[in-house]
Amino acid sequence: MSSRPLLLTALAVATALSAAACGGSETAPDDAPKVGLGPLVAAPDPLLGSPISDSAALQSAMLTMDLLPEGFAPIPDPVRDLGMDPAPEYDAPDRSGTDPKACGDVLAPIEQQLPGASAVADVRYSGPNFSSLDEDAASYPGRGAAEAFTALQNTFAECTEYSGTDADGVRVDYRLEGREQNTIGDASVSVRLTIDSGGYTLVSDVVVAVVDSTIVQLVGTGQDAFDPAVVTELATTAVDRIRGADRGV
Questions:
Q1: Angle at 22 between CA 19 and CA 27, to 5 degrees
Q2: What is the C-alpha to C-alpha distance for residues 139 and 117, in angstroms, rounded to an integer?
Q3: 100 preceded by cis ω (within 30°)?
Q4: N-to-C CA span, the chain
Q5: Does the pTM of the predicted model rise above 0.85?
Q6: How many helices (H) and strands (E) does the chain have?
Q7: Stretch 220-246: mean pLDDT, rounded?
Q8: What is the chain's mean pLDDT, rounded?
Q9: For the chain, where are the alpha helices, taking DSSP H only?
């Protein structure tokens, strides 16, 4: 399954703890205005800046811990950050997947969905109460960023409701809807993905923005929805940092 794995990891752990404590959890509060997914948002034509060609430069523009709400800590990448070998293949079958299959791409890293980037970067943070903040970005030559932005929105439109299973075969239900958000960067869309499994719920608030020739995706996940003002601030900061990397600031 190509969806962001941290979502299902957090969901599995939180479900187990909740079941042990009280047999379930109430649905997360619905405190952010939502809208229909609506028509596609177009990237600027022409794009407003050049692509980034150095992944290290893009990585240095990712959100750092000092910019996050209190209580968040980085999740190191085992291979890139810790120098470990890639995870081995296991004999146990992986029963994860989604129906439709294409919806497995929802919240997957941008470059994984649309190969061909000239630079890629990502960071992941864990926070209080099984929350997480993930940011990934991909810069593309030519009109690649505009094409990627359209493709991501097409995936959202096709996956408003879908289901799947985790690696152990446990059913997971997903609901995707538009989320009210002022434009961030050169063009942006925002959605909320609600994830239900075993009577437990996680909410992911997502902003995908075009900044010059780069696409950045910010995902805040928790048992409760993130404060909309926090999502806006973090997404705006993420865009500003990438624009600075593009222009050598």
A1: 80
A2: 5
A3: yes
A4: 38
A5: no
A6: 5, 10
A7: 93
A8: 83
A9: 5-22, 55-60, 110-113, 144-158, 228-246
pLDDT digits (tens, 9 = 90+) for 74-109: 997 665 555 555 656 655 555 577 878 889 889 999
Question: CB-based contacts of 241: which residues, under 8 Å, 6+ apart?
Answer: 61, 62, 63
Q: What is the DSSP letter of 221?
A: E
* pLDDT tens digit sequence for 176-229: 999 999 999 999 999 999 999 988 899 999 999 999 999 999 999 999 999 999
Domain residue spans in the chain? Answer: 5-21+34-80+95-246
* HSE-up of residue 154 (Cα within 13 Å, Cβ side): 9
DSSP string, 185-217: TTEEEEEEEEEEETTEEEEEEEEEEEETTEEEE
Dihedral sign computed on CA atoms, order 130, 158, 26, 95: negative
Which listed CATH number (3.40.50.300, 3.30.300.30, 3.30.360.10, 3.40.1000.70) goes with 5-21+34-80+95-246?
3.40.1000.70
Q: Which amino acid type is present at position 76?
A: P
